[in-house]
Amino acid sequence: MQISMTINGTDITEEIEPRVLLVHFIRDQLRLTGTHWGCDTSNCGTCVVLMDGRPVKSCTVLAAMADGHSITTVEGLATGATLDPVQQGFMEEHGLQCGFCTPGMMLTARALLDHNPHPDDGEIREAISGQMCRCTGYATIVRSVQWAAAHPAGQDRMDEMEENAGEEVTA
Amino acid sequence: MTIIEERAANPAAGDENRPIGYGRIQRKEDPRFVRGKGHYVDDIVLPGMLHGAILRSPVAHARLVSIDTSAALAHPGVVAVITGQDLLGLKLAWAPTLSADVQAVLATDKVRFQGQEVAFVIAEDRYAARDALELIEVDYDVLPPVIDVRTALDPGAPVIRDDLEGRTDNHIFDWEAGNSAETDAVFASADVVVSQEVVYPRVHPAPMETCGAVADFEPIEGALTLYETSQAPHAHRTLFAIVSGIPEHKIRIVSPDIGGGFGNKVGIYPGYILAVVGSIVTGRPVKWMEDRSENLMSTSFARDYIMQGEIAATKDGKILAVRSTVLADHGAFNATAQPTKYPAGFFHIFTGSYDLQAAHCKVTGVYTNKAPGGVAYACSFRVTEAVYLVERLVDMLAHKLEMDPAKLRLMNLIKPEQFPYKNKTGWEYDSGNYEQALRKSMEMAGYDDLRREQQEKRARGELMGIGISFFTETVGAGPRKHMDIVGLGMADGAELRIHPTGKAVVRISVQSQGQGHETTFAQIVAEEIGIPPEDIDVVHGDTDQTPFGLGTYGSRSTPVSGAAVALVARKVREKAKFIAAAMLEARPEDLEWEKGRWFVKGDPSVGKTMAEIAMGAHGTVTLPEGIDGNLDAEVTYDPPNLTFPFGAYICVVDVDPGTGHVTVRRFIAVDDCGTRINPMIIEGQVHGGLTDGVGMALMQFIEFDKEGNNLGGTFMDYLIPTALEVPDWETGFTVTPSPHHPIGAKGIGESATVGSPPAIVNAVVDALAPFGITHMDMPCTPARVWEAMQGRPRPPI
Ligand code: FES
Ligand code: FES
């Protein structure tokens, strides 16, 4: 079947097998591998993307169900060379170690801050409670989101950061 | 609300106060991860790549009667189906384990645990491969399983490993440490003895990324490239060479970004081997990624120790001796990963942090019809079990003597002047200041106030508990003369090159699964030679690009490879002196070092920076005799001893009297890992381990029913702490550098996983004291706590 959606701001139309999960569509067909996969039971949240601005577990959504919707993956968080404050917050406050849960955590954080720019720690914990991290123990993730809340406009140091990354942002 | 501290944003930002060397800097690896540009195994797509899926046994113990793969083979998209019989022909049906046993790659005669590998389907895409699994017909002749480990050695118990010549029972090994006669004598004359069976149930590391591989065999060259979720790429390469017969120089193992390891990615799993076989058979690259249930049911579990523990003391609370007998469930194949001479890992550090007169332990390992593994999950080779046992026993002793558990520990801790301290089971603790760490944690916790609060609450019928644990770890394995894994000595290599413009690359043998090696190791080089960390690339995880070494586990990266990196940098610094002397027309002995520069003693204005020296080395300067034209060096570091990080943890819990639900309200962790390289990374490692502790103490448990069905095979059943189950951690530190390590560092990766479970369980038991409870086993789930409150505490297995 054919589906159309907006992915990170770009309209796409693709041919898919009807049973394909959104996570596999994003990873295997669109080759946006920043969205991860970590369980069979919709528990881990490493697959979280934003659908029309709200976090969804893309392992629990058929690609067909995303037809006509707007999807944001981690590759769409930065604007060109400018990181989203959430991305910078995670680097500032050591909100990641292995980086596997990180894309999902950051997208949930972005959605939270869009609806609630000044969450308290409990609200942040609640927001990410459907997602697991085995490395960080969560406190630094909470701090990272607070950093982003305290620096909503992003930072001036993006040029250096981009240099440091040594990678093109393709989304 | 969390207070956000303002600090320099980025190592590249050129902040004046940014440390060159040790200190808090942002991680060099983060920019790719926050952009979703990490490079994990499942992200790899090679031209023509096929997908593999494994058919697994639904039963724990059965004879394999027949397998019919014809319908699967006929399924659209399926390229090949491999069974154990096919592997027999290739002599690959069985593979050696890390414990000198063998493990079935695909079952040939019997299946021996639920989830065991039975057939491998290779197809054009992952959906087709999964579909075809359903079409394979297997006829099993079900046998009675051995599930209750306590019955594994009963006469008449079903013999699990009848594949091994002459095997008539399920016994694997007996292993002892310490002196049993001496220990018994001390126990016989002691005023007080406390005995308890303490169970450390089976858990699983469950990193967020499961295990997987992409194998790419190139038939003309006979060369194999294997992308793998491996914590130990070099050791894996050697083992693959031995197993497959592919010469070692034709094998390249690449362990790219790894989504957490915690010990889960030390072993070599059948899936990795099957991907390789699949690539050889089909002539195309083959990817195999396990799903979460496969991960929880078939790859390395951890713990599963039933420990009979005893502690002896005088009536005033002087601890005299400990002894223990342990029944260790190793599952169906003995595939634990630990140094060869230590079948129970380093369990014999169960003497803990106390000055004892005697100790003895005996560990018996047995087979059961459960998944193999055993040493995994940030356990520092069974130090987890050891620390949990002794810290439970000390708490029980305090209870019996009606002494405060902190006071009892303070009385018995090894004193600073006793180091190096030789314990009664053969360890030499390198350094420590235990009392200082415990007092610091008590101060941070406000210990006396907490006890007062507890009394008030008890009077009101509220259940509050305070738990302490003091742990000593033994990590950084290890000295080659007595530590190897399947014959490979546990030393690590490092290579450092300074390019002509003064930028550097350091190649290390250990591999990161999130520990931040690209940052920490750059900082070690930076500290030694004064080049900023952002100018130093750290290369790891690729056997073609890095020197040999045994990998990342047992908290060994900083103790072993960190030492190698410091020494290789010192070698370069020393060489730089001779080159600088030639450039300055001075004598080498007249030069003095300051970070990043050699200068003439007494005339600091005359000197050469590392960048200038590097250009000199590669340029036209006339070099002294014996100095070749580069600024490179390599070393292999053989540690003289292990390192002994330690810490004092205090946990405060509230237990709901109505439901038995435990809330960890506060957790105070004071760690001493010796010299601290990047405090931010250290804190992160501690936080992660504490969360593991909450998981193990309160939630995580791989349980089996009596048929051997794994009841913890999904994240709906195997409960992992989320942000709601853990508090905002309170961390502190002391610094007691290791005297034998080049930079005094001791390792931190596993301290908190080792140290936190006893603190939490001690707190739960303390909260339940009004019910007369002196011990309960993990996991302290609401149901189990509630049962304990009704006077029916029961072991989990
Ligand atoms: S992959 Fe685990 S919730 Fe989606
Ligand atoms: S950073 Fe590794 S799982 Fe969260």
Write the layout of secondary structure elements.
The complex is a heterodimer of chains A (171) and B (797).
Chain A: E1 2-7, E2 10-15, H1 22-29, E3 48-51, E4 54-57, E5 70-72, H2 85-92, H3 102-115, H4 121-127, H5 139-150, H6 158-165
Helix pairs in contact in A: 2-5, 3-5
Chain B: H1 30-34, E1 50-56, E2 62-68, H2 70-74, E3 78-83, H3 84-89, E4 94-96, E5 102-104, E6 110-111, E7 117-123, H4 126-133, E8 137-142, E9 171-178, H5 180-189, E10 192-200, E11 212-218, E12 223-228, H6 233-244, E13 251-254, H7 270-282, E14 286-289, H8 292-298, E15 301-302, E16 305-313, E17 319-329, E18 358-366, E19 373-374, H9 383-401, H10 405-412, E20 421-422, E21 428-429, H11 434-445, H12 447-459, E22 463-472, E23 484-485, E24 488-489, E25 492-498, E26 504-508, H13 517-529, E27 536-539, H14 557-584, E28 591-594, E29 597-600, E30 603-609, H15 610-618, E31 632-637, E32 646-655, E33 662-672, H16 679-699, E34 730-733, H17 751-767, H18 782-789
Parallel strand pairs in B: 1-14, 12-13, 15-19, 17-18, 26-27, 33-34
Antiparallel strand pairs in B: 1-7, 2-6, 2-8, 3-7, 4-5, 9-18, 10-16, 11-12, 11-14, 16-17, 20-21, 22-32, 23-24, 25-26, 25-31, 28-29, 29-30, 32-33
The structure holds FE2/S2 (inorganic) cluster (FES) (2 copies).
What would a concise description of this structure say?
Chain B: This is Carbon-monoxide dehydrogenase large subunit. With 171 residues, chain A is α+β, with helices and mostly antiparallel strands.
CATH architecture of the largest domain in chain A: Roll
Structural class of chain B: alpha+beta
Biggest sheet overview of chain B: 7 strands, mixed
| CATH top level label of the largest domain in chain A | Alpha Beta
Percent helix range of chain A: 25-40%
Global outline of chain B: globular
* Radius of gyration of chain B, in angstroms, nearest whole number: 27 Å
Provide the β-strand percentage band of chain B.
15-25%
Got a strand count of chain A? 5
Provide the CATH topology of the largest domain in chain B.
Aldehyde Oxidoreductase, domain 4
Decide which structural class fits the backbone of chain A.
Answer: alpha+beta
Number of strands of chain B: 34
For the largest beta-sheet of chain A, the strand count, sense and barrel status come to: 5 strands, mixed
Given the C-alpha coordinates, what overall shape of chain A results?
globular
CATH topology of the largest domain in chain A: Ubiquitin-like (UB roll)
Mean pLDDT of chain A: 92
The Cα radius of gyration of chain A reads 16 Å
Number of folding domains of chain B? 3
- Supply the number of helical segments of chain B: 18
